[in-house]
Design goal:
about 140 residues, alpha+beta, 4-stranded antiparallel beta sheet, two-stranded antiparallel ribbon, about 15% helix
Length: about 140
């Protein structure tokens, strides 16, 4: 999984030089790569692991990225990591068993609110937020999950 980041006041390569090419937190690896597609460039942020064939514990992890003077420029927290079973699970019960047994448990089947807090009448989901300009925050925790 990856996304691009453009940071004002610092060139992409400088940002990578300050923070390093690879940052590891909680079993997840964040790789930074400067891509010069604009005057200051973009930083491609690639998140790697954990995977089914390389399980590791996944505690919530905060990534903090800094500027030239060690000032905080960008922070984000990963609360969850989704793992796909190779070949599929064949049934809901097998999927639940996979989640319960993967890396000693702690994983669960995804829910609609893990992916959106909007509405979707085509899947009979009307419990989301109606306001069109509301800041979307997905995968919130309810009762610890």
């Amino acid at each position: 999984m990856f996304f691009y980041l453009s940071v004002a006041g610092i060139k992409a390569q400088e940002f990578v030089n300050v923070n390093g090419n690879t940052i590891s937190k909680g079993g997840v690896i964040l790789k930074l790569n400067a891509e010069n597609t604009s005057p200051t460039g973009l930083v491609k942020m690639t998140l790697i692991d954990p995977k089914e064939n390389n399980p590791s514990a996944f505690p919530p992890s905060v990534f903090s990225l800094h500027g030239i003077h060690n000032e905080s420029l960008y922070n984000f927290k990963l609360e969850r990591w989704y793992v796909v079973k190779k070949g599929g699970a064949d049934s809901y019960q097998n999927a639940v068993a996979f989640c319960n047994n993967f890396n000693g448990g702690g994983y669960r089947i995804t829910k609609v609110l893990d992916f959106t807090d909007g509405n979707a009448s085509n899947v009979n989901w009307q419990l989301g937020i109606v306001e069109p300009f509301y800041l979307r925050k997905i995968s919130y925790k309810a009762n610890g999950y």
